[in-house]
Specification:
The chain is of the alpha/beta class. 30% of the residues lie in helices and 19% in strands. A hairpin with a 3-residue loop joins strand 5 and strand 6. Helix 2 packs across helix 10 and helix 8 packs parallel to helix 10. The longest helix has 36 residues. It is globular, with a radius of gyration of 26 Å.
């Protein structure tokens, strides 16, 4: 009997041991399942005023290799050509006529109390935070942020766990507390400071939850302060002289007709210097991307992280004899670099489908697992374009570009002959913006068409039309050569886009397409060859 009891006890011990091993294995499996089920991380690097049409990505060899070559490059990424309206669209996924940020001024709703109570309270970081994302922002936010009339530095938008925000005169709002900085490169160079604080955030994060980082360096925006080690780079570089460089703005809106042509030598020297310094500042951003990618790899998060690299708007240096700025409806101002790498995205992809700044928010929310039908956005996720194995989707054949001009109520002392209502004026009496530099454009961009139709809100009711297939630099306004029936169709489509609200409306309802047209590339004559009932506007 004693032997039987002894054998039974040994059997129970073995069973308990097996159960312990099984439980341990199950716990390990559950932990691994939980880790694999964790939503993907997202990093968005948002440059300031970086063009793509004039060689703006040339200095950024590391970024192209580590993000573009490792994933997808979108060659038709388009935005609103000014910082605050564009950044507001990135944050909300809405066109400017829906988030109501018109320009960079407080009166234009840039970071205003109205913005803070409305669109900012519905921006995509709030949804990420609700989905247990750890969120971090460092760098430039919206132009009027930090002003007393915009809530001062105490204001921290909802949805952000860590907030390191630059505002005027280089003071940071660190989670709502003022932090002043000087001019020491080691302590204060903003691009490096943004990077270093993001690295600390990654070290301190909780590995159990995904993270979202938005890094917004000041480069290559003026005053173009390069790091000391890069201040002698590109000494022989000049702004590109091809395309529309130093060309008169013939047959264009009056603001483009007023610059002196050809440009003066002082203007050429000035813009060449600005072009060179812009490239110098981008070298530090290139370093930022490289260090961040290496950090993600070292903490074993790189393979589960989507990295977006883009700019808030394009830029020009001498195009149509305008010295330097953005704000115009032309390719150099509305096109930006956009590259993405991440899970499910095959390397070395070049994607042609148009992507807008209003598409960033729904794409990031799509990655995070948010039900997009519950979010009020005008854009659409482009995750399906990058990773078709993860999502199905449709391309956008047409879209809206809109801008509200900025001006001053008094005459600029440098340009008394032009009168009041202008802004961004240069010593040679060339002004880059005005109240009536207010326009809206409908753009068709697919394999059949590359057309742009724009209407100005001015006393002339000025219209510009371009066939970019035959005229990629937009040198000739063909409005007088186009079939009036096509102009009417474009006008009606523009009206509908200007009033669209939400992804389920005409903002993204491509069943209401433009009529199928053919374009004679030699004569610029456009004729309707097919009309469906849906086109009867």
């Amino acid at each position: 009997m004693a032997g039987l009891r002894s054998g039974a006890a040994a059997g129970r011990r073995r069973l308990r041991g097996h159960l312990a091993l099984l439980i341990s294995a199950l716990l390990t499996w559950c932990v691994r399942c939980a880790e694999s089920a964790k939503a993907s991380n997202v990093v968005l690097i948002l440059a300031d005023d970086q063009d793509v049409q004039l060689g703006g990505m040339t200095p950024m060899k590391k970024t192209k290799a580590l993000v573009g070559d490792a994933g997808a490059t979108f060659v038709n990424a388009v935005i609103t050509p000014l910082c605050c309206p564009s950044r507001s669209s990135i944050l909300t996924g809405r066109y400017p006529h829906n988030h109501e940020v018109r320009n960079n001024s407080l009166s234009g709703n840039c970071s205003s109390p109205l913005w803070q109570k409305g669109p900012e309270a519905e921006a995509f970081p709030i949804y990420l935070s609700k989905n247990k994302y750890q969120t971090f922002f460092a760098g430039k936010y919206l132009n009027q942020y930090g002003k007393k009339d915009a809530g001062d530095v105490d204001h921290v938008p909802p949805g952000w766990d860590q907030w390191h925000l630059q505002y005027y005169n280089y003071t940071l709002s660190v989670n709502g507390k003022e932090e002043k900085h000087g001019d020491s490169y080691e302590k204060d160079y903003l691009t490096d400071l943004i990077l270093n604080r993001s690295l600390h955030f990654l070290d301190d994060r909780s590995p159990q939850h995904p993270f979202f980082l938005l890094l917004s360096p000041p480069a290559p925006h003026s005053p173009w302060t390069a790091a000391p080690q890069y201040q002698k780079e590109f000494s022989n570089v000049k702004a590109p002289r091809d395309g529309s460089f130093n060309k008169p703005g013939k047959d264009k809106h009056w603001l483009l007709r007023q610059p002196v042509n050809p440009m003066s030598n002082t203007s050429l020297t000035f813009l060449d210097n600005a072009y060179r310094k812009r490239w110098q500042t981008l070298l530090s951003v290139d370093d930022m991307v490289e260090i961040l990618v290496k950090k993600l790899e070292s903490i074993k998060e790189l393979d589960n992280t989507y990295i977006f690299y883009m700019s808030d708007n394009g830029y020009h240096t001498g195009q149509f004899s305008l010295p330097i700025d953005k704000r115009q409806l032309y390719e150099f101002d509305i096109r930006i670099p956009l590259m993405v790498r991440g899970p499910g995205i095959k390397p070395n992809q070049t994607l042609q489908a148009p992507v807008l700044n209003i598409d960033l928010a729904p794409t990031i929310l799509d990655i995070s697992g948010v039900n997009l039908s519950l979010v009020n956005v005008d854009g659409q996720s482009f995750l399906s374009q990058m990773a078709p194995s993860l999502r199905n989707g449709t391309a956008r054949p047409l879209f809206l570009i809109e801008y509200n001009g900025e001006g001053q109520p008094t005459t600029d002392p440098a340009c008394p002959k032009l009168g009041p209502g202008l802004s961004q004026c240069f010593p040679d009496c060339v002004c880059e913006d005005a109240y009536n530099n207010t326009y809206a454009c409908v753009r068709t961009l697919d394999r059949q068409q590359n057309l742009q139709y724009c209407e100005f809100a001015d006393s002339e009711s000025f219209v510009e039309v371009y066939n970019l297939t035959s005229d990629p630099h937009q040198l000739e306004n063909i409005v007088k050569k186009v079939d009036p029936a096509i102009l009417q169709v474009m006008n009606q489509r523009l009206i509908k886009l200007q009033s669209c609200v939400g992804d389920n409306s005409t903002c993204a309802d491509w069943t209401m397409c433009l009529c199928v047209c053919t374009v004679n590339l030699l004569s610029f004559k456009v004729s309707v060859v097919q009309k469906h009932s849906i086109c009867q506007m």
